[in-house]
Amino acid sequence: MRKVTVYITLKQGVLDPQGKAIQESLNSLGYNEIEDARVGKYIELKVEDGPALEARVTEMCDKLLANPVIEDYRFDVEEAWGL
Amino acid sequence: MRKVTVYITLKQGVLDPQGKAIQESLNSLGYNEIEDARVGKYIELKVEDGPALEARVTEMCDKLLANPVIEDYRFDVEEAWGL
């Protein structure tokens, strides 16, 4: 069993209202050192090991997990689940 | 300027309907090797460097970014923004 961690972020230049709201909230709480905030998704997958693991995870990202129009993704395959 | 990446995940044992939906969708697309999926938030902060940077980011997570009842968080402080 492998652990795959997928990171999905908005492409550069795509407006991030959620990030903007976080930045403004932090500034209003007195954390003026925060200049920008970008929010993305972080998905941990528990995957049965297999020969074409990386190719299939790429397919999963392209087909379902990320929106190719506005999002970029990358993923890490870790040795084993739970370590 | 520093880049701080915050990872926010649901605590173990907290139901993750979004993760469940992703797992079932991937299985229905034929990716039966997916046994579990957990979804979290991933926030990139652009932060003016300062003496108590880590302590203040911890405060930001406790006060705003993470819900301490159902979420865990960790963060990485990177050398400089944009590298």
TrEMBL record, chains A, B:
The keyword Cytoplasm applies. Its EC number is 6.3.5.3. It holds the Pfam family PurS. Pathway: Purine metabolism; IMP biosynthesis via de novo pathway; 5-amino-1-(5-phospho-D-ribosyl)imidazole from N(2)-formyl-N(1)-(5-phospho-D-ribosyl)glycinamide: step 1/2. It comes from the Bacteria. Part of the phosphoribosylformylglycinamidine synthase complex involved in the purines biosynthetic pathway. Catalyzes the ATP-dependent conversion of formylglycinamide ribonucleotide (FGAR) and glutamine to yield formylglycinamidine ribonucleotide (FGAM) and glutamate. The FGAM synthase complex is composed of three subunits. PurQ produces an ammonia molecule by converting glutamine to glutamate. PurL transfers the ammonia molecule to FGAR to form FGAM in an ATP-dependent manner. This is Phosphoribosylformylglycinamidine synthase subunit PurS. It comes from Oceanobacillus longus. The lineage of its organism: Bacteria, Bacillati, Bacillota, Bacilli, Bacillales. The gene is purS.
